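Narrative of activities, Objective 1.

The group set out to show that a structural description can be obtained from nothing but a protein's sequence at a throughput compatible with the screening campaign. Below is one input-output pair from the validation batch, recorded exactly as produced.
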Amino acid sequence: MNETARFDQVAGAWDEDAGRVAMARAVADAIAAEVPLAPEMHLLDFGCGTGLLSLALRPSVGRLTGADTSAGMLDVFRKKIAARGLAGVATMHLADGAALESAGPFDAIVSSMALHHVRDIPALLATFRGLLPTGGHLALADLDLEDGSFHPAQVADVHHFGFERQALRAAIAAAGFESLRDRTAHVLRRQERDYSLFLIAARAASPSTRLR
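Output recorded for this entry:
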């Protein structure tokens, strides 16, 4: 089973995991502490899943778009949007690589626990930079480097066993971002082990800054 199909299959029960809900809340709090969210902003949540992070951030921004490769996850998210009568919230099914590149512009891009499923991180970061104006905000949360035990062995399409923060910071800077800072956003307990999640926040640099 590929990764998208697996997420489609588990979407209906995704929010029943209290640890997952707590993680989304903690990441939202960390983002709010690092990014000056405002009512005039349009925010993209990349790898939004069922919208746990998106909906936690929604009251702080004017518009929000949740993007994901899993149609099942997005279906759950859309049902939440309808049930709550939310305006200014849209979803985007990333069924092909061009969908995200044609979106935007956005004032801020956030993502939680999606990067380790992306093979080409520099290409994704370049896409993010292209969707943001100079001064736009980026906030990425994912696992600190781990030994591969976080996911079961049968799970496909896990391309990174977490990330070394300094290496990811360097990749973000190389993609055209500045003012980088990181913090530990949450510690997730799984199978009697603790796994830490970082948040790296940055701002889109001007082209002239990148050429220096």
